[in-house]
Amino acid sequence: MISSKIENQILSVVFEDDRSRNSLSLAAARALRMSLRSGDYDALVFSAKGRVFCSGGHLGDYGQMTEAAQGIEVNREISSILEELSLLPVPTFAGIEGDCFGGGVELLSAFDFVYSAPHALFGLWQRKIGLSFGWGGGARLEKRLGPHLLRRFSLSTDSITAEEALRLSLIDGIFPRGQVQTGIMERVGSMRKLPAAPVASLKRWVPEKEREIFEGLWWNDEHRSVLSEWRRRRNSRPDSGLGLSGSRVDKAHDPDDL
Length: 258
Prior knowledge:
Order of helices and strands: EEHEEHHEEHEEHHEHEHHHH
Helix content: 40-55%
Number of helices: 11
CATH topology of the largest domain: 2-enoyl-CoA Hydratase, Chain A, domain 1
Largest sheet: 6 strands, mixed
CATH class of the largest domain: Alpha Beta
Radius of gyration: 21 Å
Mean pLDDT: 92
CATH superfamily of the largest domain: 2-enoyl-CoA Hydratase, Chain A, domain 1
Distance between the termini: 43 Å
Strand content: 15-25%
């Protein structure tokens, strides 16, 4: 159902339950939570096998419930697990090779970066079963889509293509079919070259906490290391100006050039 491994400090999580079209049961969500807490890693890559990335909640489970409180308790737990995923202090990536509907879109909203194959379809189908957002996805999707588009898609239940999803910022990129994981690993490689200290703070960033977050990060080990390297380069090339990358001050500066 949910399998995971940590290799080269990357947590790879694979969802595979093709018989249920990869619907997210409570058992699967709990297995995901165990994977998130399974060890030390500096990036997470999530993928799903089968024709569907995730079709939403597990209707087989819900159909056996006899009272509202049971379903509410289950959905609250799944919501808390996806919130934990969304706030992991490492960059997280989802690779989509199949269609994604209903709660599946809420699941993908918990990842920092979402990449898809071109054939995938996306749809907010919650209304089709008489519901709204139940896993915290409404708030996360509003940040990606904005309130107008979120309302439009959730009310209409229309499905959109990967190209349209990219244009609307529901996803972050498209890789050729069968090459999504390869493309993601390239992105992970480039992301891991950047300082890790700000990741958790940037994920929790809100305007009213901007100064507090910034000052809490100031002079951390990675910040001091960047400044030290800048001073070393400046001293070795005194005519290079004050640019962080060693370029003249009237040019763009990029810490990656250090």
